[in-house]
Structures are given as structure tokens and as C-alpha cells.
Specification:
heterodimer; A: mainly alpha; B: 445 residues; alpha+beta; Methylamine Dehydrogenase, Chain H; 5 helices; 17% helix; 37% strand; globular; DDB1- and CUL4-associated factor 13 (chain B); repeat (chain B); ribonucleoprotein (chain B); ribosome biogenesis (chain B)
Chain lengths: 768, 445
């Protein structure tokens, strides 16, 4: 290759030289003319004249000699050597003469074309071909990489790879070649023919076929399951309806109805927002119902029942009320429904506006009666608390607590009831104890037994009131919304506080316990809440108890946290958790410190070494037989003399190898016999001795494994079927599409001819 | 007073029919079955010993040829049919189940150099020293008909090998050059050359069927692409390669049987380093054939033995020899991967089990389970010295045994010398060449 290039360049150089020669001569002659003096010129002229006398030949020879004079034999003179011949210079004299137009054109054409590169030699071309072909082929082959890798790593390979599907000949085909021969067979066939049963093709009656086609087994199964489910659901629904129907309470039914109406209204509201057209239709329906109501005499105290009631109305208040109710209902039903608009919202007033300022989530929680999110709930309470603080800073703690307790009760009234009941029980037990040791009570010294029993009663009353109040407040919440109930809620608070204020120190302790329990039960949510709840009472009772103080601080902290961070509604739960996590971390660190405080590795090691040395020392052998030659029995020891006599002292062993090595324990108990069976070097695929040990230690036999596990553990890596030919892997086997063109067609289409352009391209590729 | 009685439900211990298996309640509490490792170790040891006891690989010898067997071919559709060509130009077709020759053809004058079957199994091709390529029908001639080839192609030069395409009616011959033939034509569709030397064997890739590999007597292995009609690459090894064989499960892997007693497994995309050098033979390796599972291959050697190598191991797992078997010239692994056939100089074709201690015939499920368990135990404890020693133990003929010792000494001496050279020269001036790279002289693009 390099040789070739060299040759090429040489050739080019020589061409250039030829071209350069010409103008040089010309230039040289000119400069000669200018440079020399007149005498010289004259002399030249003379020479020319003389030479012209002889003829053409003579003159030419003179020219040649001249050139050889100027251009030295060894190197071209440096004059004008840097300049390159440009075609334009040569053409300049031609410009004037129009007769040379064709030549000019040709020359121009030559100028526009580039010089053609020398073709590569054959070997080079072939080499390039090979390289390109090889790259192509290896690319084709690399598609097999994942499959090869997969097969190499496969737990199990089953050969032959392609699954031969057993070909089942349809029974029609089998039957077509078969004929009834025996009389019995013929009889049967006759019967079949009589019954128009198809014998060979299609074997099934059209009806059967249709039924077969209609539904596959899976479909049928699915369908059945669906039907079953539907039936079950229906039965549940029916049972529920029956149960509900059985309920006699009018109140309940009223509530249900109300709920339904509310729900309908809500749905309508939603519909109004989501799909105004549908809402309009709904509205029309309502309107129509109103019209119907207006037309009918249903609720107009004109029915049979109404008339009978009207008679009674004079004397019976209830009857009168019932009639009133009916009328009210009529009024309600015939009242025109007002489409909620902006004007309505504007009418809401200052309270409403305030509410609107609060984020939507809060509103939702307050509206939502049956299942508020505890997180949202807390945030909402804090918000309202803020509002309350703005209104009346003095009243701050109480409403918060009440609201909280209430909301908690609302959330899980059962829990609340439970706690109340438990509280009650505990108090009773405490009461009993206090009765036993009366002197423990500081405040109750002047009180008698009667008073104590009275107290129990009062407490009971208080508890029941609490319960009732909770229920009430729940109902209130259900019925009303917003800030209105706050006022109502404040009322029962003093009543509730009274019995708590009367409590003694012991009781407080029990309360603490209770609180702990509570904390345990409902961790994050109820703890601050409850603490808030207790915080009002505890300081009232014991302002000087140090423990309580501590708790109070903590609680205040939490409260601060709540108040400060309640501005952002979302991120309320996060900081408390973080705090807890921090605490946990600190605790853990301390625990670890404590755990490893007494750890002395060096001492342990020394102890170990001492033990190893002790164990390796040869032991004395005691051959005394108790009772031999003297009395024996329980509690009797062989005499010291005898023991001394029969004790065989072990000889002192050789010194330990690690005697003088303080940091080493050398195990001298290597069993040579066992070592012969042991693996000395870690075998290849394992990277750690523990890995290897583990594989050895897991048994694979049926003695230690269940049948299934045994089979799984002992499956061979390669399974071949006897008598089956295993064919080479095919692209189709592994999901690849094999090349559609056959190899032979490709060859015939690719005759071994390569155009020069193709070659050039190839060369370019190879250069890249 | 209540009397306590033993009461058992017969459902728990009575079989429904007498054909049911007896239920054996088992308690798998490990405390009840101690010493699992030692017990399994003993089982493994016993399994290994039994394996050696039952290792009787030789099945049959097919005799009938009147000269050394030069080439073998499998029937692509029939497991029981085998074709063989001898050095006297005779081709025989054998039935392995009957262990009989079912047909004899005097195919060529001089050696039958190569034999291959068509992918459909209806005909086969032979090439001989008489410069001809002949196509024969697989079925014998009818009564009264003469034994004649379907086609005969008379070439200009001697053909030394032949192989048929795996899917199409194309075959390749080698000699002076690699020729690709259409079955219907008397001239090759294309001829591929790279340098001038006699090519001893050519093989089609069974997966990517347009690929060919050949090995020539100027020590090189050349790969060709049939579709692009060019050679692809050439690798020159230390010594001549006798034949190559492609892995039937891994498209780019092939193994070359070399004169320097070794086999080289190459990835054809990276020819500069063989994937594995398989060394155990003590004389030139003459033939190699892959198991159809692609996990092992068998090699035939001039040292009168055949060896089975796992593809990822450099040492053989098995060596077969008999007293009467001379230089083994050709070897084939049957397409159900259960048997191995080898043809040797002393005119016999021998049939071996691929797995020496395998029990032939149908196994009961218990036998199968026991076999699998034993196999797994052997694998599990294969690194333990006693088991390793027993599993590796083979009786070898004295010639091979002494050769191995000699080889070992020579190799050790060479290694020592190399080490000394490295030790006593300037660090870095004597490069350390790995065993894999040592044998590759050059890769020519």
C-alpha cells in the first residue's frame, strides 16, 4: 500500500516538473535579456543571424543547449520555483483569437474536472471487501449473543428445542377411510342414517356445532361466575333492604329519607358542575314533579286520613301537628327550586367569607360527617382555633380542647365510650383501695364514707353526661356546620370540668396511666390531642408536681408546634414524625454506646487463648474405682491415698507454638485423616469459602428434603429424549425471524463484479 | 372411669386399591436426620465408585471395510443409519440397530475423501481422489438395476472435502479453492480463494447457514461468507488445522482440531484469541464433532484414542480407546447425543456410549431419580480430593500414558525456561504470553 502511494506521488511530481519546466525557460530567457547589456544583445543577435543562415535544425539545437546551460544538471535553479503553473495564465494569449474557441471550451471542461485517482490494486480491493463483509457478518451473528448467554446459564435445557406438536387427525379423516363391513356395524350405520345423524363429516349436528361455537369453556365459566356474583349481590341487597324495612323507628326512616334527599341534592350539585346539560334535564324533572304535586291533592289535607285527623285536630295536638307537617311538606314540594347562583353565595355573610378563605380541604372535613381524615381534622381544628384566638384570646384553650375531644369522639365514638367506661372502672377500683387506706387521701380527711359514696355517684353522673354530650355534639355536628356549634359546645364544658377538678393526686396518676394507654392506642393523632385535653386540668390540680411540669412543657412545645405550623395545612404531620425519628436515632446511638461500653476485645481474646491452651493440654487419667477395697456409696469418696495411687499423670506436652506470639492462636489439632477428605483450595466458581461451605452443607437427598424439593434439587442440567434427533438451533426456535431470502438466491443476484464507484466507496469506508 | 384406648382412622393407613403406593409418613425434622454432610459425602463417594465400575462405553464394532475408514456421515433423518467412506473408494451404509452393513458401493477410485448427506436424507454426496463429485441415492437400486450415481461431476483438481448446506440444494467442496455448487449444475456457482494452498476441509455453519469455515495446509483457518462470495478472515495458527466443526447451538463458535495435539475453540468474531484451548491428546488431532446439545465435543486423534471435552473446559472428561483401535481418522456424535462413532485406520467403525456409565434402555422412575441424585451428588462433591481422584482415574494404554508423562516433562521444562528467561532479563523485555495467545500466529484481515 505504502509503496503504491509512493509511486503515485512520484508520478505526480514528475508531471509537475514537466509543467514547470516550460515557463521557467521562458522567464529565464527574459531576465537574461533585461539583465545583460547592449553588447550582449548585439552578440546574441549576431548569433541568431548566423544560425538562421543554416536553417531550422541548427536553431533548435542552439535552444536546447541554452536550456541545459541555464538549468543545472543536478538541481533546478531556484528562480520562480515557488510558482505553480495555472491554466489561466496559459490561456491568456488565447483569449484574443476567436478561432481557438473550441480549444478553450475543452480546456475549461478539463479545468472543471478533478483528476481521477489511480485505481487500487486488486489485493487491496479484496482486503477492503473482506473487511466490510466480516463486519457485516459479525453484526448478523451478534444477534445470537443473548440466546447463547441464556442457554449457557440455563438451569435446565431440554432437547430437542423445538416442541413437536402432536398432530391429531380429525376424526372425520379417520372415518372417511373406514367402512362398515360387519352386519352389526352396518346396522348401526343404518340406525344413524335414519336418525339423520351425520356420520363422517361434520360428525356434529348443526345445532350442536352452533352451541359449541357459541361459548367456549372459559367463557362459560366466566359467565357463570359473573352470574353467581350478581345473584349473591342481589341477595345481599335484598337482605339488607328487608332488615332496614324491619326497623320500626320512625326517626331512623326519617333520617334515611333526609340522607337520601341530601344525597340527591349533592349529586345534583355535582352534576351541575360537571355536566350542566344533564343537570338541566334533572332540573326539568324536578320541575315536573313540582307541577305534578301542584296538580295533585296529595298533601293538601283533603284525603281520608287528613279528614279524620281534622276531626281530631281540635283536641289532639299531635294530629294538629301531623296536619301541619303535611301542609309544610306540600309547601316544600311545591316550592320553586332555586338554582344556586353567585347571589346566594354573596348572601352568606362575613362568616361564609371567612370560611372561603380557609382552604377547601378544611371545609370538606367540616362538611364531611361520617369519615373525616384524622390529619385534615387536626388541621381544621387548629384553624378554627386560630379563628377563635382572633375573636377571643382568653377563651383559647377551652374550645380547642372541646372541639378536639368532640372530634375525636366523632371519629370513633366507640373508643371514646370505651375509654370512658374504663375510666369509670378504674376509678371504682381506686375508690375501693382508697377506702382501705383512708389516710392516703389528703383532701378527703374530713369526708366520711357517705361522702365518698356520694362522690362515686356524682362521678357516675358526670361520666354519663359526658357520654350523652358526646352523642349530642355528634348530632349537632351532623345537622349544622361551621362556627355555629362552637357556641353550643362551650356550654357543657363547665359541667364536664367539675368532677375532674375535684380529683385527688392518686386519681391523677391513674389518669396518667390512662393517658399512656391512650397514647399507645392511637399514637400520633390522639397523643397531642389528648395532652391538650389534659393540659387544662392537670395544672389546675397540681401546679407543683415536677413530672407534670415536664409533661406540660412538652405539651406546650407540641402545641406551639401545632399553632406555628398550622398555617400550612399540608405539612402538619411531617415535623412531629421527624422529631420522633430524631429522638429514636439519638436513643439508638446511646443504646449502642451503652451496649458496647463494657466490651473488651483484647481481654476476650486472651481468655480465648488461655482456654485453647488449657484444652490442648494432656489430661490426667484417674483410674480410681470407688468401693474397691473400701466402703463405697453415696457421699463417700475414695481415699486420698488411693486416688493418688491410681492417678496417672499425663506427660508434659511440647510447648505451644503460639507461646511467644501474643496476638495469635495456633490450632494444633489438625486431623490428618480428615484432611485427606477435605478440600484444600477454594474451587473455581466460588468466591468465598463460606459460599462453598453453604453449598456443601445444604443436603439434597430425599432423607432431608420433601419429595418435591428433592426432585427440584436433582433435576439434570441437560435432558435429552432418547430416540429424538436434536437439530441445530434455528432462528425461528428462539423467536427471531430468519432471513427470508435464501442463501443461493443471494449468491445468484450478487455476481462477483464490483464497479469502480463501489470500490471508491469501499475505500472511503475503510479509510474511516 | 374413662378408659383411654388407641384409636386409629383406617383412612390414614389403608390403601384404596392394592395398586396404590404404600404411604410412608416421614418426619423431616433435621434433628432426626443428623450428619447430613458426611452421609451425603459417603453417598457421593459410592456413586463415583459405581460410576467407574459401570463405565463400559464400548458398544459395538462395525467391520466390513477393506481399508481404513476415511470419513463418516450421519443420516439427517434417521438415527440408525450411518455412512462411511474408506480409503479404497468404498462407501458403506450401516444400520446401527442391527449393527450390519446394509449397502456397499464402490464409489471412487482411490480414497473417498469426503462424504455428506443431503439435508432431506434422500441422497448423499461423495468426493474422491479421482477428481469427481458424485451424488448417490440413499435407497439402494431396485432389483436388476446397477449401482450408479445420480450425478457425477468431473472436476479439474482433486477434491479433499465436501459439505452440504443445511437448508438448500447447495454444497461446498474444497481442494485448491472452496467451490459452492448448485446441485443442478456442473459448474460451481462461485469459487473462493485466498492464497494458494490445498484446503483440507470445509464446513457449513449449521445456524447461520451462509457461513463456511475451511482449513488449509498452510496452517490457516479461513472463514467465508457464501452470500457475499468473499472470504472473511483468516487466522494462522502454529501448526496445521486438520478440520473444524461448528457448534450447533452457538452460531459463532467453532472448534479446530490441530496438528499440535490441541483443539482450539474460537469465537469467529474475535479470532486473535481462542476462547479455549483444549489439550489432552498426545498426538495430532484428526477430527472433531460437536454433540448436538452443543455442550461437549468429541475429538479423534492419531494417538489411537478419542476424547470428549466439555466446551468450557480445557481438559477432557473422558478418553476412549481399545487395544485394537488404531489411529482414529474420523469421529461423529450421533444426533440424539447418546452415542459416538469413530472410524479408524484398522478398517473398523466403533460405536461408543457418550456417557460411559449410562444404563441403556428404559429406566424406571426410581432408577431415574437415583441416577439424577447420584449425578448431583457427584457434582456437589467433585472438588473433594478422594472423589476427584476416583472420578478422574482412567486406564490408559502404555503408549499414551508414557507420552503424557513425557509431554508433561517437556511442558514443565519449557515453562521453567520461560520463567528463567523472564527472571534474568530486564523487567518487561520478555513479555508473558498467555497459553491462549501463544498458538495464534496472526490474524489476516
Amino acid at each position: 500500500m505504502t509503496a503504491n502511494r509512493l509511486a503515485e506521488s512520484l508520478l505526480a511530481l514528475s508531471q509537475q516538473e514537466e509543467l514547470v519546466d516550460l515557463p521557467k525557460d521562458y522567464l529565464l530567457s527574459e531576465s537574461e535579456d533585461e539583465g545583460d547589456g547592449d553588447g550582449e544583445r548585439k552578440h546574441q543577435k549576431l548569433l541568431e543571424a548566423i544560425s538562421s543562415l543554416d536553417g531550422k535544425n541548427r536553431r533548435k539545437s542552439a535552444e536546447r543547449s541554452e536550456a541545459s546551460l541555464k538549468v543545472s544538471e543536478f538541481n533546478v535553479s531556484s528562480e520562480g520555483s515557488g510558482e505553480k503553473l495555472v491554466l489561466a495564465d496559459l490561456l491568456e494569449p488565447v483569449k484574443t483569437s476567436s478561432s481557438l474557441a473550441t480549444v478553450k471550451k475543452q480546456l475549461n471542461r478539463v479545468k472543471s474536472k478533478k483528476t481521477v485517482e489511480l485505481p487500487l490494486n486488486k489485493e487491496e480491493i479484496e482486503r477492503i471487501h473482506r473487511e466490510v463483509a466480516f463486519n457485516k457478518t459479525s453484526q448478523v451473528l451478534s444477534k445470537w449473543d443473548p440466546i447463547v448467554l441464556k442457554n449457557r446459564q440455563a438451569e435446565q435445557l431440554v432437547f430437542p428445542l423445538e416442541k413437536e406438536e402432536p398432530v391429531i387427525a380429525p376424526i372425520e379423516h379417520v372415518l372417511s377411510s373406514w367402512k362398515a363391513r360387519t352386519p352389526l356395524e352396518q346396522e348401526i350405520f343404518n340406525l344413524l342414517h335414519k336418525n339423520k345423524q351425520p356420520v363422517t363429516d361434520p360428525l356434529l349436528t348443526p345445532v350442536e356445532k352452533a352451541s359449541l361455537h357459541a361459548m367456549s369453556l372459559e367463557e362459560a365459566k366466566m359467565r357463570r361466575a359473573e352470574l353467581q356474583r350478581a345473584r349473591a349481590l342481589q341477595s345481599y341487597y335484598e337482605a339488607k333492604a328487608r332488615r332496614e324495612k324491619k326497623i320500626k323507628s320512625k326517626k331512623y326512616h326519617k333520617l334515611v329519607k333526609k340522607g337520601k334527599a341530601k344525597k340527591a341534592l349533592k349529586e345534583f350539585e355535582q352534576l351541575r358542575k360537571a355536566n350542566p346539560a344533564a343537570a338541566l334535564e334533572e332540573l326539568e324533572k324536578i320541575e315536573k314533579a313540582r307541577m305534578m304535586e301542584r296538580m295533585s291533592l296529595k298533601h293538601q289535607n283533603s284525603g281520608k286520613w287528613a279528614k279524620s285527623k281534622a276531626i281530631m285536630a281540635k283536641y289532639d295536638l299531635e294530629a294538629r301537628q301531623a296536619m301541619q307537617e303535611q301542609l309544610a311538606k306540600n309547601k316544600e314540594l311545591t316550592q320553586k327550586l332555586q338554582v344556586a347562583s353567585e347571589s346566594e353565595e354573596e348572601e352568606g355573610g362575613a362568616e361564609e367569607v371567612e370560611e372561603l378563605l380557609v382552604p377547601d380541604a378544611v371545609n370538606e372535613v367540616q362538611m364531611n360527617v361520617n369519615g373525616p381524615n384524622p390529619w385534615m381534622l387536626r388541621s381544621c381544628t387548629s384553624d378554627t382555633k386560630e379563628a377563635a384566638a382572633e375573636e377571643d384570646p382568653e377563651q383559647l384553650p377551652e374550645p380547642v380542647a372541646h372541639e378536639v375531644s368532640e372530634s375525636e369522639g366523632e371519629e370513633r365514638p366507640e373508643a371514646e365510650d370505651d375509654t370512658l367506661l374504663r375510666e369509670f372502672e378504674e376509678r371504682r377500683s381506686l375508690r375501693k383501695r382508697s377506702e382501705l387506706n383512708q389516710d392516703a387521701e389528703p383532701a378527703g380527711s374530713q369526708e366520711t364514707k357517705d361522702s365518698s359514696s356520694q362522690e362515686v355517684l356524682s362521678e357516675l353522673r358526670a361520666l354519663s353526661q359526658k357520654l350523652k354530650e358526646n352523642h349530642q355534639s355528634r348530632k349537632q355536628k351532623a345537622s349544622s356546620e361551621g362556627t355555629v356549634p362552637q357556641v353550643q359546645r362551650e356550654e357543657p364544658a363547665p359541667e364536664e370540668e367539675e368532677p375532674l377538678l375535684l380529683q385527688r393526686p392518686e386519681r391523677v396518676q391513674t389518669l396518667e396511666e390512662l393517658e399512656k394507654e391512650e397514647c399507645f392506642q392511637n399514637k400520633e393523632l390522639s397523643r397531642p390531642v389528648l395532652e391538650g385535653h389534659w393540659s387544662e386540668k392537670i395544672p389546675n390540680n397540681h401546679p407543683d408536681a415536677p413530672q407534670e411540669k415536664k409533661k406540660e412543657e412538652e405539651m406546650i412545645d407540641l402545641q406551639n408546634l401545632l399553632t406555628t405550623q398550622s398555617l400550612s395545612v399540608k405539612s402538619l404531620a411531617v415535623p412531629t414524625i421527624e422529631m420522633l425519628e430524631d429522638e429514636v436515632e439519638r436513643n439508638q446511638r446511646q443504646m449502642i454506646k451503652e451496649a458496647f461500653a463494657g466490651d473488651d476485645v483484647i481481654r476476650d481474646f486472651l481468655k480465648e487463648k488461655r482456654e485453647a491452651a488449657e484444652a490442648s493440654k494432656p489430661k490426667d487419667v484417674d483410674l480410681t474405682l470407688p468401693g474397691w477395697g473400701e466402703w463405697g456409696g453415696v457421699g463417700l469418696k475414695p481415699s486420698a491415698k488411693k486416688r493418688r495411687r491410681f492417678l496417672i499423670k499425663a506427660p508434659e506436652g511440647p510447648p505451644r507454638k503460639d507461646k511467644n506470639l501474643p496476638n495469635v492462636i495456633i490450632n494444633e489439632k489438625r486431623n490428618i485423616h480428615a484432611a485427606a477428605h477435605q478440600v484444600r483450595v477454594l474451587p473455581y466458581p466460588f468466591t468465598h469459602h463460606r459460599q462453598f461451605e453453604r453449598t456443601i452443607q445444604t443436603p439434597i437427598g430425599f432423607t432431608w428434603n420433601t419429595q418435591r424439593a428433592f426432585q427440584k434439587l436433582t433435576t439434570p442440567k441437560v435432558i435429552t429424549k432418547p430416540g429424538h434427533i436434536i437439530k441445530p438451533i434455528k432462528a425461528e426456535d428462539v423467536g427471531y425471524r430468519s432471513s427470508s431470502r435464501s442463501d443461493i438466491s443471494v449468491i445468484q443476484r450478487n455476481p462477483k463484479r464490483v464497479t469502480t464507484r463501489h470500490k471508491k466507496q469501499l475505500k472511503k469506508n475503510s479509510a474511516d | 372411669m374413662k378408659v383411654k384406648m388407641l384409636s386409629r382412622n383406617p383412612d390414614n393407613y389403608v390403601r384404596e386399591t392394592k395398586f396404590d403406593l404404600q404411604r410412608v409418613p416421614r418426619n423431616y425434622d433435621p434433628a432426626l436426620h443428623p450428619f447430613e454432610v458426611p452421609r451425603e459425602y459417603v453417598r457421593a463417594l459410592n456413586a463415583t465408585k459405581l460410576e467407574r465400575v459401570f463405565a463400559k462405553p464400548f458398544l459395538a464394532s462395525l467391520d466390513g471395510h477393506r481399508d481404513g475408514v476415511n470419513c463418516l456421515a450421519k443420516h439427517p433423518k434417521n438415527l440408525a443409519t450411518v455412512l462411511s467412506g474408506a480409503c479404497d473408494g468404498e462407501v458403506r451404509i450401516w444400520n446401527l440397530t442391527q449393527r450390519k452393513c446394509i449397502r456397499t458401493i464402490q464409489a471412487h477410485e482411490g480414497f473417498v475423501r469426503g462424504i455428506c448427506t443431503r439435508f432431506c436424507g434422500t441422497s448423499f454426496f461423495t468426493v474422491g481422489d479421482d477428481k469427481t463429485v458424485k451424488q448417490w441415492k440413499m435407497d439402494g437400486p431396485g432389483y436388476g438395476e446397477e449401482e450408479e450415481p445420480l450425478h457425477t461431476i468431473l472436476g479439474k483438481t482433486v477434491y479433499t472435502g465436501i459439505d452440504h448446506h443445511w437448508k438448500e440444494a447447495v454444497f461446498a467442496t474444497c481442494g485448491q479453492q472452496v467451490d459452492i455448487w448448485d446441485e443442478q449444475r456442473t459448474n460451481p456457482i462461485c469459487s473462493m480463494t485466498w492464497g494458494f494452498d490445498s484446503i483440507s476441509s470445509v464446513k457449513f455453519n449449521p445456524i447461520e447457514t451462509f457461513l463456511l469455515g475451511s482449513c488449509a495446509s498452510d496452517r490457516n483457518i479461513v472463514l467465508y461468507d457464501m452470500r457475499q462470495a468473499t472470504p472473511l478472515k483468516k487466522v494462522i495458527l502454529d501448526m496445521r488445522t486438520n478440520t473444524i466443526c461448528w457448534n450447533p447451538m452457538e452460531a459463532f463458535i467453532f472448534t479446530a482440531a490441530n496438528e499440535d495435539y490441541n483443539l482450539y475453540t474460537f469465537d469467529m468474531r474475535a479470532l486473535d484469541t481462542p476462547v479455549m484451548v483444549h489439550m489432552d491428546h498426545v498426538s495430532a488431532v484428526l477430527d472433531v464433532d460437536y454433540s448436538p446439545t452443543g455442550k461437549e465435543f468429541v475429538s479423534a486423534s492419531f494417538d489411537k484414542s478419542i476424547r470428549i471435552f466439555p466446551i468450557d473446559k480445557s481438559r477432557s472428561r473422558e478418553v476412549y480407546h481399545t487395544k485394537r483401535m488404531q489411529h482414529v481418522i474420523c469421529v461423529k456424535w450421533t444426533s440424539d447425543s447418546k452415542y459416538i462413532m469413530c472410524g479408524s485406520d484398522e478398517m473398523n467403525i466403533r460405536l461408543w456410549k457418550a456417557n460411559a456409565s449410562e444404563k441403556l434402555g428404559v429406566l424406571t422412575s426410581r432408577e431415574k431419580a437415583a441416577k439424577d441424585y447420584n449425578q448431583k451428588l457427584k457434582e456437589k462433591f467433585q472438588h473433594h480430593p478422594h472423589i476427584k481422584r476416583i472420578a478422574r482415574h482412567r486406564h490408559l494404554p502404555k503408549s499414551i500414558y508414557s507420552q503424557i508423562q513425557e509431554q508433561r516433562i517437556m511442558k514443565e521444562a519449557r515453562r521453567r525456561k520461560e520463567m528463567n528467561r523472564i527472571k534474568h532479563s530486564k523487567p518487561g523485555s520478555v513479555p508473558v504470553v498467555s497459553e491462549k495467545k501463544k498458538h495464534v500466529v496472526a490474524v489476516v484481515k
